[in-house]
């Protein structure tokens, strides 16, 4: 009876082997496919925001698709992510400052219009808006005018010494 069992096990093992061997794949010559891919690597996008850490501006970069200047300022007013909060980052720009309107003026200024009066914002909140709006300008940093409630601040540059300021150089600075 053992011989009969051994033959059955051998036959059961040969059936899948024969099926795989006869699956219809035939050898072929090398198939030319043309040149390998070339060109630039797709860019990685990051949105620059200026949050607050220990009473000073701190630049953060969030990965993601490119955003409009108004959407970038909306992110700023929404505040730091949970990971950024754990690092001690905050924002002084209140959510009610949005929605934002951003226009580029012929004189090379970026005008940011708020939904709240400019006087309701701290100087640091205005700096956050100025630096974040300037970072969205395609030609590089621009002077920014912040307008809201019939009041305005600017035109202003991102303050000297802020992270990302080309006149500030130090360990770990971007630029």
Task: Tell me what you see in this structure.
- The chain is built from four helices and six strands, in the order αββααββαββ.
- A hairpin with a 4-residue loop joins β3 and β4.
- The protein starts with a helix and ends in a 19-residue tail after the last strand.
- The protein is α+β, with helices and mostly antiparallel strands and 175 residues long.
- 28% of the residues lie in helices and 21% in strands.
- The protein is elongated and about 95 Å long.
What does this entry show, briefly?
Helix content is 28%, strand content 21%.
Residue fraction in strands: 15-25%
- The number of helices is 4
Q: Which range best describes the helical content: under 10%, 10-25%, 25-40%, 40-55%, 55-70% or over 70%? A: 25-40%
User: C-alpha Rg, in Å?
Assistant: 30 Å
The sequence of SSEs as H and E is: HEEHHEEHEE
Round the mean pLDDT to the nearest integer and report it.
Answer: 79
For the sheet with most strands, the description reads: 4 strands, mixed
Task: List segments where confidence is low: pLDDT < 50 over at least 5 consecutive residues.
Answer: 165-175
Classification by helices and strands: alpha+beta
Shape: elongated
The largest beta-sheet arranges its strands as: 3-4-5-6
Tell me the distance between the termini: 83 Å
Total count of strands: 6
From the structure above, extract its key features:
single chain; 175 residues; alpha+beta; four-stranded mixed sheet; two-stranded antiparallel sheet; 4 helices; 6 strands; 28% helix; 21% strand; elongated
